[in-house]
Amino acid sequence: MAAQGAIIFEDFFPAMVEKLGEEGFMKELCNGFRLLMDGEKGMITFESLKRNLGLLGLQDMSDEEVISMLREGDLNGDGALDEMEFCTLMFRLSPALMKSSRNLLEEAFITEM
Fold first, then answer.
1. 13 near 97, Cβ under 8 Å?
2. What is the tens place of the pLDDT at every residue in 27-40?
3. Is the distance from CB of 25 to CB of 32 less than 8 angstroms?
4. What DSSP string runs through 44-103?
5. Could you tell me the sign of the dihedral formed by the alpha carbons of 75, 31, 46, 4, in that order?
6. What is the pLDDT of residues 57-77, one digit of tens each?
7. Structural domain boundaries of the chain?
8. Which Pfam family, an example, fits this chain (predicted)?
9. What homologous superfamily is domain 21-112 in, according to CATH?
């Protein structure tokens, strides 16, 4: 059972990959990034994410939750998400995609050997 006020994430990504194909899915991820990013900075910032939370149905998130979301994906410590960090975060939030990515990586290693 989720804690009161917790955000429940339902993993729709595998179905999207199946429907759109890998290339189509990556295009949709890029579109999602552009939708959330600050147009001048080319990154998802606290302000741009906060401003666009309604598009995600998350308009009731607190500032602390928004900051936590950014920190989760901020790999280089600059306080914002570039496109690669955003896509990486989306994959990390999808257990099924992480598993299939791991399988593809293992297959690539086996093929190289």
1. yes
2. 888 888 999 999 99
3. no
4. B-HHHHHHHGGGGT-TT--HHHHHHHHHHH-SSSSSSB-HHHHHHHHHHT-HHHHHHHHH
5. negative
6. 888 989 999 999 899 999 999
7. 21-112
8. EF-hand_8
9. EF-hand (1.10.238.10)
